[in-house]
Design goal:
Elements: E1 29-31, E2 36-38, H1 44-56, E3 62-63, E4 66-67, E5 74-75, E6 79-80, E7 82-86, H2 89-106, E8 114-122, E9 127-131, E10 144-150, E11 158-159, E12 162-170, E13 173-183, E14 189-194, E15 199-201, E16 204-205, E17 215-223, H3 240-247, E18 266-267
């Protein structure tokens, strides 16, 4: 027989002897970083063609750099990867067609007008320490980062996951939390997230050492020409302004006129009404 009472128990009050009163309550909210991910983004044939192009450009890649937000000095500290700045109006068109859906998912409202893109390759020991993308965009509070993944199958590397850190809110301040979301670098997938999000690429291994077996990405920063819209009292809570505050100290103190990896911005086209991605209309009974 069960040892539990058959009759309903009488509720027992938990007193302040065991639980502090609310005036001594000090807690912190941890807000998950918003992310929108698409699978089979370009399709098997186009993804394979792009991967072949990337591998063919091996000799044009150079060591990736970082920009110190205080000194403005360019270095390789905290980063081990190869990069190749590129432009592609076609890829920007693909991004434009899915941005209406991405912005709805992420709760993003700012106008976006341009893209900045680099190819990256991570091999043995490849990594990128915790950072934001503030050095890539004019206004980190409104910009989006997009990472499109490419690799041969089966994978010639291990590791290389993207960690997107949550935002911790405490006493009116914001900072990266210890918790994070993990994005696997799956071939022909793309992930969108706020450029203000703290994130990192965990170390990868590449036993063969062959360039073709590296972890490849087409990384794009999508931004506008203006500043963030002012917050309106009474509007629903939005994580974007808080994330921007947390990332503020990583933004260069002076305007950056050139990208530290040599990338050049191009205009973002308008979404094609025939191919833009949107949520399907709900079914009616």
């Amino acid at each position: 027989m069960s040892g539990y009472a058959k009759e309903p128990a009488t509720p027992t009050e938990i007193s302040t002897r065991h639980l502090p009163p609310t005036d001594r309550w000090s807690t912190s909210a941890v807000i998950p970083v918003p992310v929108c991910r698409f699978e089979n983004f370009l399709g098997a044939q186009r993804a394979a063609s792009l991967l072949s192009y990337v591998v063919s450009r091996q000799s044009d890649f150079n060591a990736g750099t970082v920009l110190d937000p205080l000194s403005g000095q360019i270095s390789h500290k905290g980063r081990s990867s190869l990069v190749l700045p590129v432009t592609s109006s076609v890829f920007s068109g693909h991004l434009a067609d899915c941005l209406p859906l991405v912005q709805e998912v992420l709760g993003h409202q700012a106008a976006l007008t341009q893209t900045l893109t680099v190819l990256t390759a991570h091999g043995e020991g490849g990594h990128y320490g915790i950072h934001t993308d503030a050095s890539r965009v004019r206004d980190v509070g409104t910009a989006l980062s997009a990472v499109y993944y490419l690799h041969h199958k089966p994978r010639g590397f291990e590791g290389g996951q993207l960690r997107l850190y949550d935002t911790l809110l405490h006493e009116g301040e914001a900072r990266p939390a210890e918790t994070y979301r993990t994005v696997e670098p799956e071939h022909d997938t793309i992930a969108f997230f706020p450029s203000s999000a703290f994130h990192e690429v965990v170390p990868s291994t590449c036993p063969s050492g062959r360039f073709a077996d590296h972890r490849f990405t087409l990384t794009t920063w999508i931004s506008g020409s203006g500043s963030a819209a002012p917050e309106v009292p009474g509007t629903p809570f939005r994580i974007w302004p808080w994330m921007a505050r947390a990332a503020e100290h990583t933004r260069p103190l002076t305007d950056v006129t050139h990208d530290h990896d040599g990338a050049s911005p191009i205009g973002l086209p308008a979404a094609d009404p025939a191919t833009r991605l949107t949520f399907p209309a709900p079914r009616t009974a």
